[in-house]
Amino acid sequence: MQFYSTNKSVPNVSLKQAVIKGLADDKGLYMPERIDPMPSGFFENISNLTFSETALAVAKKFFGEDIPDDKLKSIIDQTLTFECPVHEVRPDISALELFHGPTLAFKDVGARFMARLLEYFLGDNDKEVNVLVATSGDTGSAVANGFLGVSGIHVYVLYPKGKVSEIQEKQFTTLGQNITALEIDGNFDDCQRLVKSSFMDKQLQSHMVLTSANSINVARFLPQSFYYFDAYRQLKKAGLDKELVFAVPSGNFGNLTAGLFAKKMGLPVKRFIAANNENDVVYEYLQTGKYNPRPSVQTIANAMDVGDPSNFARILDLYNHSWKNICDDISGVRYSDDEIRATIKDVYSRDKYVLDPHGATGCKALIDGMKPGETGVFLETAHPAKFMTTVEPLVGKGNVPVPERLAKFMEGIKVSIPLSKEFKDFKDFLLNI
Ligand SMILES: *Cc1c(COP(=O)(O)O)cnc(C)c1O
Question: Which CATH architecture has domain 83-102+221-400?
Answer without folding.
Answer: 3-Layer(aba) Sandwich (3.40)
